[in-house]
Amino acid sequence: MNFCLNTQLSTRYNFTVASAGKSIAMANSVRIAAAQMTSVNNLAVNFATCSRLVKEAASAGAKLLCFPENFSFVGDLQGESLKIAETLDGPIMKGYCSLARESNIWLSLGGFQEKGSDDAHLRNTHVLIDDNGNIRSTYSKMHLFDVDVPGGAVYKESSFTEAGKDIVVVDSPFGRLGLTVCYDLRFPEVYQQLRFNHDAQVLLVPAAFTTVTGQAHWEILLRARAIETQCYVIAAAQAGKHNEKRESYGDTLIIDPWGTIVGQLSDRWSTGITVADIDFSLIDSVRTKMPVSKHRKPAEFWNQHP
C-alpha cells in the first residue's frame, strides 16, 4: 500500500451549515486520510483508482478520506466536462455514495462536475458523503480560475462554470469542517470567515494546482491558512500528467494548527494516500496559548479606520 502515517471580516458571503440533526460525539483524536491521484477522461478508470484508495484508507483505520478536485474526471478536449456533468442524484455520484457506504468511511469529493443552471455551465462542487452513503453537504467553488499563468497556459474557468455564493461548514466526527476548492486558497477572507465567524476546526482544500503555481505557492499558502486560522488543513491534490495539455503539481498535504506538515506522500507525483490523526486537544491548546480570535479587530474597527 502506498501511504504514509504521521502521528472579523465583512460578511459579504452567504453561509450554510449542515449537521446530522443531532450532536456528534468526538473522541480526542480521529484518523483521516488524503488522496493523491492523476485523473483522466475516463469515469470508470478514475472510479477504480478511487475505490482502491478507499480500501487503503479504510485498512489504515481512516474514518474520512479526502479526494482532490476533479477526482472523477479530467477532460482532454474543451467541452468534455460539460458533456459528462450530472446532477448529484445521477449514476456517477450514486457510485461514490455506494463506495462510502460499503467501506464505512466518509468521503470528501472535491470538485465534482455538477450540472449547472443551463447547458453551457456546470458547478465545481465539493461533495461530502457520510459513512452511510448519504450526501451530508455540498459547496460550489466560489472563486473561479480565470488566469494567465506566468510561463504557463491561459485558463478561463468562468467560461463553463458558474460560481458558488455560499460558505459551508459541516459538523462531523472529524470536527467542524470548512469546505473549499483549489483557487479559493488564494483568498484568505474565506478561511477567516470559516474559522472566526463559523468556528471551523478543519479546512478541506481539494485541488488541481498547475505545476508553475504549485511549485511557487502551494505549500506556503496552505501552511499560512493553517497558521492564521489555527485549523487543520487537508489538501488532497491532483498529480502528474492528465493528458498532453494538462499537468498538476501534486504534493498532497495534511497540516496541523501550528503549521506543521503531519501528512505527506514521499513522491509528490505518485498515486496513493497519506494518513494523520486530527488531535482536538492540539487545536484547543494552540488557540488557548495564542488567542488570536480575541485579539483580532472586528469588522466595525476597519469600517471606522479605512
UniProtKB/TrEMBL annotation:
This is Deaminated glutathione amidase, chloroplastic/cytosolic. The lineage of its organism: Eukaryota, Viridiplantae, Streptophyta, Embryophyta, Tracheophyta. InterPro entries: C-N_Hydrolase, C-N_Hydrolase_sf, Nit1/2_C-N_Hydrolase. Residues 30-280 form the CN hydrolase domain. PANTHER family: DEAMINATED GLUTATHIONE AMIDASE, NITRILASE-RELATED. Keywords: Hydrolase. GO terms for molecular function: hydrolase activity, acting on carbon-nitrogen (but not peptide) bonds, in linear amides.
